[in-house]
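Renewal narrative, Specific Aim 1. Our central claim is that a sequence can be written position by position from structural information alone. The example that follows is taken directly from our test logs and has not been curated for this report. It begins with the structure tokens describing the chain, in the order in which they were read.
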């Protein structure tokens, strides 16, 4: 049966309807996005130019920053550019493209955070075998698997969405193309599609979250036998990762682990995981990590010296 689709473009309601609130959001979110690009780009630069940051943990951190840049860029530039526009439109193909890449990078981040938890488990619980278990080829495979998992998840979401008939209206009650707002516009019952999305999202989120919790439970149990100094160093390293995990998973679970979405708060929650969390991640890791701060200072001194010369 052919899919009936009379919609060639969608119109976003945006984050706010009030004109003053729109202008304020432009003033706030443009610097937030620029800070996200600068902060994560700086992490990538530091990790790839500093000889002291060559461990698997920083290899994963640089890829996490790359994912954050891509993840935020899949939605935020379109949102910012459309804030002051009278008609916030996107083509049907553009909407499906945005949906696809948003979920590719989102799930890639979930899986990468899971990989980083495994890295911390091996480093703390099996330190003598750490470099053997987390060899560079293994690290490459784990990163590649994270991207592949994101692709698989997003293909499923996209196939479910493009099979839905859209015959009007075409106003998306959001500031970017996402699943639940699109399902509301479909001129058919979306229970099955919503259930498939719920199961697909749940598999990645719940399994990853259970693995993360299990990893840190094992780490905490293992640390009971360590010295106070050893526990302090290990917990300091893990605290940054746990903070990032909570910032990403809690809003994601709120939005996606429901078969339907009827809460107007969803848009505000989406602001948190599409804009705020990607900006905070490099800040969290750099402020709590002495090695990263030292590498930043070295890079700064090097640039200053080159500028003087």
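The sequence written for that structure reads:
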């Amino acid at each position: 049966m052919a899919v009936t689709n009379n919609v060639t473009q969608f119109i976003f309601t945006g984050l706010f309807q009030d004109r003053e609130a729109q202008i304020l959001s432009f003033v706030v979110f443009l610097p937030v996005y620029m800070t996200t690009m600068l902060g994560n780009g700086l992490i990538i630069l530091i990790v790839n130019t500093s000889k002291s940051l060559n461990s698997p943990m920083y290899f994963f951190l640089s890829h996490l920053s790359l994912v954050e840049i891509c993840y935020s860029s899949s939605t935020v530039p379109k949102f910012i550019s459309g804030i002051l526009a009278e008609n916030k439109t996107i083509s049907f193909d553009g909407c499906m493209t945005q949906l696809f890449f948003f979920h590719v990078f989102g799930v890639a981040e979930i899986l990468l955070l899971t990989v980083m938890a495994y890295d911390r488990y091996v480093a703390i619980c099996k330190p003598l075998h750490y470099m053997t278990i987390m060899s560079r080829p293994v690290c490459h495979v784990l990163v590649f698997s994270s991207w592949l998992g994101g692709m698989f998840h997003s293909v499923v979401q996209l196939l479910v969405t493009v099979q839905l008939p859209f015959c009007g209206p075409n106003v998306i009650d959001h500031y970017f193309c996402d699943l639940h707002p699109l399902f509301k516009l479909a001129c058919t019952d979306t229970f099955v599609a919503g259930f498939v999305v719920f199961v697909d999202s749940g598999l990645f989120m719940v399994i990853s979250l259970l693995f993360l919790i299990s990893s840190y439970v094992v780490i905490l149990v293992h640390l009971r036998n360590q010295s106070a100094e050893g526990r302090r160093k290990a917990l300091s390293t893990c605290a940054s990762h746990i903070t990032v995990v909570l910032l990403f998973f809690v809003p994601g679970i709120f939005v996606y682990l429901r078969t339907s979405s009827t809460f107007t708060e969803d848009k505000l929650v989406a602001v948190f995981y599409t804009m705020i969390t990607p900006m905070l991640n490099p800040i969290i890791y750099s402020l709590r990590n002495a090695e990263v701060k030292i590498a930043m200072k070295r890079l700064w001194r090097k640039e200053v010296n080159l500028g003087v010369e």
